Amino acid sequence: MSSLSVAEILNKVQRIQIVANRTVNDLFAGQYKSVFRGRGMEFDEVRHYQPGDDIRSIDWNVTARTGDCFIKRFSEERELTVLFVVDVSASGLFGSTHQSKLNVAVEIAALLMFSALKNNDKVGLVTYCDEVVEFIPPRKGKAHTLRLIRQLVDVDPIARPTRMEVALEFLNRVQKRRAVVFVISDFLGGTPRRALAAANRRHDLTAITVEDRRELELPDVGLVHLRDAETGELVEVDTRDRRVRQTFRDQAARRRQTLATSLSRIGVDQLPVDTEHDYLISLRRFFHMRQQRFR
C-alpha cells in the first residue's frame, strides 16, 4: 500500500474528478469520439434496394424469401473498450518541479478515463513493473472509473527493473477484441519494439511518454549523488564539468530520438508529456493530429 491515508486518497481522487470533469466538458466535448474509432460496423437495418446501392450489400436471404431485392445497412459501432497500461516502477517517483512523473501519469489517465466514461465506453487497467501488478477488467460506469483512479492514486511504486513487454503480452492474452490502449510510461527501461508492434496490430495503441527536464539536462550544481530508483545503484557526478553535462545531454537526446523513431516506425502514436508544462496542450495537439489523419 502507499503511504497515503484513506482520507488523503479520497481527497485526491475528488480533486482529480473535479478537474477532469471540467476539462472533459470544456475542452474535449466531441473530440474524444472523433479521434478513436469503434470496433467496426454493426448491423443497422434491412431496406429495399435502390439504384446506386452497392450490390455487395444485398441481403440474399431476405431477397429470396420476399421476392424483392433488399440490402443490409450498417453503422459504425461507437462503443469502445479502453485500456490503460501504466508503468508503476519507482522511476515514476522522480520529479524536479511541483509534481512527479507518476502524478502526471495518474492525472492524464484520469482525464482520459472520464472522457471514456462520458462516451459510455468500457474502461480497464493494467499496472506493471517487471511483472503485471494489477489487472482490472474493462467495465462501464462511474463507480468503476473511480475505482480505477483510486487504484492509481494509491499505487506503491516498485523498485525493480521495468519490463514493458510482459505487460503487453499479458494484454494481448486477456483482451481478444480490438481496444483503444494507452501505454503510460517514462520508457527509461527501453522500447520493446516487437511487443509494441504486436499489440498495435491488434489494438489502437498510443504511447504516452512522461519525462522530466532533469532527465534531459543536468544543472551546474557541483558534486551530486544520483541513485537509480529501480536498481538502487549510486553514482557521484561532478556537474561542474561542462563535458559531463554535455555527454549527459547528448545521451538523453539520443534516447529521446530513438524512442520517437522506434514508435513511428511501428505505427504507434506518441503523446509526449512532462512534469513542467501543461499536458492539456499536448492532448489538444494529439487530438488535432488524430482528427486530421482521419479526415
Mean of pLDDT:
86
User: Any idea what the CATH superfamily of the largest domain is called?
Assistant: von Willebrand factor, type A domain
Output the CATH topology of the largest domain: Rossmann fold
Rg over C-alpha atoms, rounded to the nearest angstrom: 23 Å
Write down the CATH class of the largest domain.
Alpha Beta
Helix content: 40-55%
Quote the distance from N terminus to C terminus.
Answer: 46 Å
Structural class: alpha/beta
- The SSE order reads HHEHEEHEEHHEHEEEHEH
The total tally of domains equals 2
What order do the helices and strands come in, and which of them pair?
Blueprint: H1 6-26, H2 31-35, E1 40-48, H3 60-66, E2 70-77, E3 81-87, H4 101-118, E4 122-128, E5 132-139, H5 142-153, H6 164-174, E6 180-185, H7 193-202, E7 204-211, E8 223-227, E9 234-238, H8 242-265, E10 269-274, H9 279-294
Parallel strand pairs: 3-4, 3-6, 6-7, 7-10
Antiparallel strand pairs: 1-2, 4-5, 8-9
Please characterize this protein's 3D structure.
- It is a single chain.
- This protein has 295 residues and is of the alpha/beta class.
- The chain folds into 2 domains: 6-27 and 79-294, Rossmann fold (3-Layer(aba) Sandwich); 43-77, no CATH class.
- It is built from 9 helices and 10 strands.
- It has helices at residues 6-26, 31-35, 60-66, 101-118, 142-153, 164-174, 193-202, 242-265, 279-294; strands at residues 40-48, 70-77, 81-87, 122-128, 132-139, 180-185, 204-211, 223-227, 234-238, 269-274.
- The strands form 3 sheets. Strands 5-4-3-6-7-10 form a 6-stranded mixed beta sheet, sandwiched between helices. Strands 1-2 form a two-stranded antiparallel sheet.
- Strand 6 (180-185), helix 7 (193-202) and strand 7 (204-211) form a beta-alpha-beta unit.
- It is elongated.
- The termini are far apart.
- The model has no long low-confidence stretch (mean pLDDT 86).
